[in-house]
Amino acid sequence: MNQLKATDAVRKPSWNRGRWMLLFLVLICASPVLLSYFTYYVVKPRGGSTNYGALVEPQRPIPATLAVRTPNGEIVSMQSFKGKWLMLAVAPSACDQACATKLYFMRQLRVTQGPERDRIQTVWLRTDDKAVPPAVAGAHQDMLFLVADRGALADWLPVDTGTTLEDHIFLVDPNGNLMMRFPKNPDPSKIKRDLAKLLKWSGLG
């Protein structure tokens, strides 16, 4: 009996050490998760947002009543273009220098996405049905030229204070929800970064 008690006394410290070692290993493995929760909920660092464009909240789906005219004169719902990431610009058909620069940025941003570029459709929403300058039309053959009512667009597309619809580039997700607005006179390299992240982490489109 005394021998059994002595054996138990030897095993007990050993068992306790094993439990403490197991707890230590669990804490080591869980530390990254615990640290991230502590940082987010306790420290709450400022400037945590990494996106350049302004996220549009709450969601603004393409209005069911928003109709556009295609180049062949057909009137269709804007919702019929869902399924791809839509990069939108709003401008009159005359397309001044600011408009031309914006369309150029959009074209180049799509091209720089490499194999993912086919998931993006650039769209120029013209606010009148006048003739497009030949130089502009020739430079953007992959872009959709659609005519839409400016008032209807203004009801859907929010703008920054002190800006107009024509100042921004907008991004619509493949489900038809307006999700991002880029500022006036944007930095194309920062828009490119936003697009690359969206295409990498989203299976949509």
Sheet with the most strands, sense and barrel status:
8 strands, mixed
Q: Do you know the CATH topology of the largest domain?
A: Glutaredoxin
Mean pLDDT: 86
Strand content: 15-25%
Protein structure class? alpha+beta
Overall radius of gyration: 28 Å
**Total count of helical runs of at least 4 residues:** 5
Keywords: Membrane, Transmembrane, Transmembrane helix
Protein name: Cytochrome oxidase Cu insertion factor, SCO1/SenC/PrrC family
Transmembrane segments: 20-43
InterPro entries: Thioredoxin-like_sf (IPR036249)
Description:
The protein has about 200 residues and is α+β, with helices and mostly antiparallel strands. The protein folds into two domains: about 50 residues; about 150 residues, Glutaredoxin. It is built from five helices and eight strands. It has an eight-stranded mixed sheet with strand order 1-8-7-4-5-6-2-3. It is elongated. The termini are far apart. InterPro entries: Thioredoxin-like_sf (IPR036249). This is Cytochrome oxidase Cu insertion factor, SCO1/SenC/PrrC family. Keywords: Membrane, Transmembrane, Transmembrane helix. It comes from Chitinasiproducens palmae.
